[in-house]
Amino acid sequence: MAPGLTVLLVLLLYVKDPTVQAEDTCPDWAAAIRVAALDCAEEKNQEVCRTYDVHFYPTFRYFKAFTKAFTTGENFKGPDRELRTVRQTMIDFLQNHTEGTWPPACPPLDPLQPSDVLSLFDSRGGHYVAVVFESSGSYVGREVILDLIPYENVVVSRALDGDTAFLETLGISSVPSCYLIYPNGSRGLVNVAKPLRSFFSSYLKSLPDVRKKSLFLPEKPNKAENSEVVVWREFDRAKLYMADLESCLHYLLRVELAAHRSLAGAQLKTLRDFVTVVSKLFPGRPPVRKLLEMLQEWLASLPLDRIPYSAVLDLVNNEMRISGIFLTNHVKWVGCQGSRPELRGYPCSLWKLFHTLTVRASTHPEALVGTGHLSEDPKFPKVPWPTPDLCPACHEEIKGLDSWNEGQVLVFLKQYYSSSNLVDTYSADQGESSEGRALGRGEVEGQALTPPEKFRRDQDAESLRPPGMLGPRADLPQDVQHRLDLRLQSPRGPGALQEAEAAAPFLGVGFSSLDMSLCVLLYVASSLFLMVMYFFFRVRSKRWKVRLHHPAV
């Protein structure tokens, strides 16, 4: 941007399918603010879009006046992308300029004080003076000021409605209102049908002797000279053309991805998932499918670390010169061609590609087996809730279309989530907390159980109630019953039940099967030890007898 221009900023509107010329959005503001549009859908603009790090469409960038050094501008910051919001954000950005960088052609936008307004009454400048009175959050006054920049013999200012007594002296009962001072000194309120920007601006522009002045602005490029010759291709609207789908892949992989200098993390995972789906379901020609399969295998072998886009481009362009793989390197729209180059094209082909993949997925469900994790339970599909069977009054039909009765939905939600609708079935008892058995070993909370498993679980819950809840057990000695109670309260899940069952009396003497197993083990070990000792002393005694009968000579 040249430092001497009276241009405040350039608003770059990066669009995929521009249906409104950005230059015509605020044409009267051109002396203070210029609006330009750059179409990132055109491959010739690819390098510029990548340099300015544009990833989303539309993207708004603001550039201050008199900027000398290179900058990527400031991003648009607003709650939405409505034209009114964008216009107001442009005004906010304009007012952020300092006095030294304020464009000479732009009049002041700050509100006047009541004393300043009174001084205007005595001035005789030979032109109209309009003052728009408004609230502090209104943009009407500033918009009217900018609308009247290219017009002469009229000056527009704004004032706030803080001084009620002053407004009453002027006969102003509501805001926004426009108070006009005529060249001859007479003054009064402007009478318009609606207190809107367009009505005030139109009225002031239509005043006698108010006319448009000449402004020297940079000329716009001649669209006729730069327009490309569009070759129309006849096509059948009832057919799907492979040229559109392959052109979509070319544009996505070589132009759309080119906006990213590198890919990592979630972005790389998204690309990998998309290529996986396309490689499995794209009904293209063998060279294209082979290329997609190679790209999918290569991406699947990579960690989610950062990779440069150039690596993806090298594979797509077949830099390794592998035979049998190919993807067109230009677009050729057929069913997606538009009446002008900027219309339809890539957005149209992308929708056709998505619809094609969706149909292929339904007809070839085995193609995606083992490639993603479905989050939807087939027995509980995701549907709008509450369903008609739960809340018939929540659903109604208006002009043949299903719609919600929001009042009934609110009543249903309040009733459904109220404490009176809570039931204690399957809730854990006190003994089934973290210190008792809430879930069996290997069970997952909420996991569906087959009927036999559920039956066994109910039996376990019955058997593992707290000791005080069990029936009398007169057939057990007191010490055995105490040990059984301790084991029933063990936090070891089903193992506690097995030990509890093993703690039943054995032969009526209070020994468990575990105790008897230990006794048998000790008995066998003792027997073996005694036998070893017996043979040891027997052999030793024989040696002594031999020595006694054969004394040494």
Automatic annotation (TrEMBL):
A Pfam family of the record is: QSOX_Trx1
Gene3D superfamilies this protein is in? Answer: ERV/ALR sulfhydryl oxidase domain, Glutaredoxin, QSOX sulfhydryl oxidase domain
The UniProt entry's GO biological process terms, in alphabetical order, are: protein folding
Question: Could you list the residue ranges forming a coiled coil in this record?
Answer: none
Signal sequence extent: 1-22
- Output the Gene Ontology cellular-component terms: extracellular space; Golgi membrane
Q: Give all residue intervals belonging to the Sulfhydryl oxidase Trx-like domain.
A: 103-209
Amino acid composition bias (Basic and acidic residues), ranges on this chain:
434-444, 453-463
Q: Is Membrane tagged as a keyword?
A: yes
Map out region (Disordered) in residue numbers: 427-476
User: What sequence ranges are listed for the domain Sulfhydryl oxidase flavin adenine dinucleotide (FAD) binding?
Assistant: 236-339
- Keyword Kinase listed: no
Q: Which domain of life is it from?
A: Eukaryota
Q: Which InterPro entries match?
A: ERV/ALR_sulphydryl_oxid_sf, QSOX_FAD-bd_dom, QSOX_FAD-bd_sf, QSOX_Trx1, Sulfhydryl_oxidase
GO MF term list: flavin-dependent sulfhydryl oxidase activity; protein disulfide isomerase activity
Membrane-crossing residues?
Answer: 520-537
Question: Per UniProt, which keywords does this protein have?
Answer: Membrane, Signal, Transmembrane, Transmembrane helix
Q: Could you identify this protein by its name?
A: Sulfhydryl oxidase
